[in-house]
Amino acid sequence: MDKHCLCVFLILMFFPAAAASTGPSPSSCNPNAKEQRSIRLSFKFEDIGRLWKIIDELKSGADPAVEKWNSLVSGPGYESLIKEEIPEDVLLEAIRTAFLPSKQIQQKLWRDEGKSALHLVDHFLALDSKRREVTDLLLQLNQEQGKLSQQAIELACDYFSLQASEGAPHFSVAFAAFQKDARGYRSSIVMDPLFALEAGNNLVYWLAHETHHILRHSVAVATTPDGESAKNKSLVWVLRQLQSEGIADQIDKPHTFFGEGYLAHSKFAKFFRNEVVKGPTRIAQLNDLIQEIKVCQLECDAIDERIRKVAVMAGHPLGFFMADAIEKTLGRDALIVDIGDPSQFLASYNRAALKSAQKLPIFSESSLEYVSRLFTVGSPMISK
Ligand SMILES: [Zn+2]
């Protein structure tokens, strides 16, 4: 998650005329409905069990046999992490550097140099220092997974339409240490055990957020040839992020980053909330950049970079701002009816902005037209 104010009161200040949260709408998916019986989160603990054994061997001064390392990197969590974002050699070297006595000099050197892989080393050290608590937690989660799964799917379904969820795949939640975060990949969730430990009863919100990503992925529309072009690469990425994270963040952020949320006082949450306040400014900036990229013929890379910079924190707070405006002004159905189509998300935001009493900025017709050219209508994407 990859990722995390105004508090809730400020959000309400933006949209005072807004209706109260509408709750699950008639078109929301229902985990008890026949169609959804096949959706279940299945918890996987193999990764962490193999990691403990490797850590113990490294501490004794021995480098585990190749088969043991292979077993670790082919586990449900680490296989996904390696495939999507952490190179295998970086991961394994960080584990060795954290625990192998002969690597302690290297670890000191990395600290002196401020090497980026150090965050992994420190995370594994922190994990090992909480081994008892983590082990107890995973035992507890194993017993409670049926209940947690049901709650997480219910929360995710509050922001997902019934029709859209048909055919959603089975998927697993693999507990694998990497950083205090979680990931929702195409067919699995990876949850960091330390992150889960700190979340306590809030874990269900993070599970629901990542579950939502997996459900949405099955209906995400494909890009057109225009959307595939190099000059639109960043814009397409940002637009997808705004919708997918903006809606998924409605599930967890009000409970974790705002008000009395357990992370509300963290720097990350404060930054997130400050960015939500800047939503109107960011909308105007993004609109200008869409106009620039629309007419750009040559050397468009600089605009590309600025587009990514406008979507601070990978688009989470701006997406949150837009989704919140849509839901509070037009209702939840309007927010989720076009889930998977980023161009419709912008069009819905415009309708909400025009209806709101706050004179929120809108995207120009020209920008909406350009964005609509980047995505196909109603045909699910094949690859992200
Ligand atoms: Zn997310």
From TrEMBL:
<feature type="signal peptide">
    <location>
        <begin position="1"/>
        <end position="19"/>
    </location>
</feature>
<dbReference type="Pfam" id="PF18958">
    <property type="entry name" value="DUF5700"/>
</dbReference>
<dbReference type="InterPro" id="IPR043754">
    <property type="entry name" value="DUF5700"/>
</dbReference>
<keyword id="KW-0732">Signal</keyword>
<protein>
    <submittedName>
        <fullName>Uncharacterized protein</fullName>
    </submittedName>
</protein>
